Amino acid sequence: MYLEYWNLAEKPFENTPNPRFLYPSEQHREGLRKLLYGISEEKGCSLLTGEYGCGKTHLIRTVVKNLGAAYEVAIINCPMFDGKEFLEEVLHQFGREGERASRIECFRELSNFLYENVAQERTNILIIDEAQIIDDPEVYEELRLLLNIQLDDRFLLNIQLVGQPELVEHIKKYPQLDQRIAIKFHLGHFDRDDTVNYVKYRLERAGSEEQMFSDAALFLIFKISQGIPRRINNICDLCLMEGAQQKVESITEEIIKQVF
Question: What is d(CA 231, CA 199) in angstroms, rounded to the nearest whole number?
Fold first, then answer.
C-alpha cells in the first residue's frame, strides 16, 4: 500500500526467505561459504545455529538456490516426529510416497533411494530447519544411522541441521551424532554498521534510488531491533506505511517513536 508513494518496485522488508534479499554481511558470507563447502566436499553433516530472526532460514534457502540440477534436496521445516514418522517424512520430501509397515522398511527404502541417486552421480541433501524442536531420541538416532550409510569415499546423504542455539546442547546429549558433525557455524546479530547497511541494501533491492531513513532513524532502529533482521524488517515496514500515510519526505525518529 506504500509502494507507489516511496517509488518502490516491491516491498523491501518482508519476513520471507527470498534469497534475492539476503544481505551479504561478513558473517552471512562466511556461513554461506561453509555450508556450501560442507555440501560440495560431502562432509556428511553441518550445523547452523543462530538466535530467532537472525536469517538462518534465509541463508539456508540461499544455499539451496546455489545448488545445481545434480542435487536431490529434501527440506523438513517442522520436525515434530517420532523415529518412523521422521523417516516417512524424509521419503515424502524426496518424493517417495506409499505406506510402510515398519521403521526398517522405511530405512531400507530410503537407503536404496540414496544409493540409486549416487549411482546416477546425484548428491542427496536433507535440510532440517527448526531442528531444536526435535524431542524424540529416536530421531537423533535415525540421523546418526543415516550418516552411517556411506561408500568408501563419500556419504550417501548430506544433512544440514538448522536451529536456535539450544540445538547445540541437545545434540551434545548424543555424542555419536555430535562427533559426525563436520561443520558448525553460529549466526549472530548485526552490529550498528550492518544494521544500517542492511536497511539500505534491501531498499536498493526493492528499487529505491535514494535513502529514505535519516541517520538518526537508522540508529534508533538498531537500538530497538538489537540488530535482529526480523525485528528490523518489522520496524521498517511499519515506518514506511506510517510515513506514506503522513506523506512525509523521509522516515525520522519521530515516525519510529509513533510506530513503536
Answer: 12
Closest CA to 15 of 256, 255, 231: 231
Pseudo-torsion of CA 80, 86, 90, 96, nearest 10°?
-120
What share of the chain in percent tops pLDDT 70?
A: 100
Reported as a single tens digit per residue, the pLDDT across 207-256 is 998 889 999 999 999 999 999 999 999 999 999 999 999 999 999 999 99
Q: Yes or no: say if 51 and 188 are a contact pair by the CB < 8 Å rule.
A: yes
**What is 3-21+191-259's CATH number, 2.40.50, 3.30.300, 1.10.8, 3.90.320?**
1.10.8
* pLDDT value of position 101: 76
Residue 93 phi, psi (nearest 5): -70, -25
Residues 217, 27: Cα–Cα separation, whole Å: 24
User: Mean pLDDT over residues 117-135, rounded?
Assistant: 96
- What pLDDT does residue 68 have? 86
Instruction: State pTM to two decimals.
Output: 0.89
Could you tell me where in the chain the CATH 1.10.8 domains are found? 3-21+191-259
Q: Per the CATH hierarchy, to which homologous superfamily does domain 26-187 belong? A: P-loop containing nucleotide triphosphate hydrolases (3.40.50.300)
In this prediction, residue 141 has a pLDDT band, given cuts at 50, 70 and 90, of very high
Q: Return residue ranges of the chain for CATH 3.40.50.300.
A: 26-187
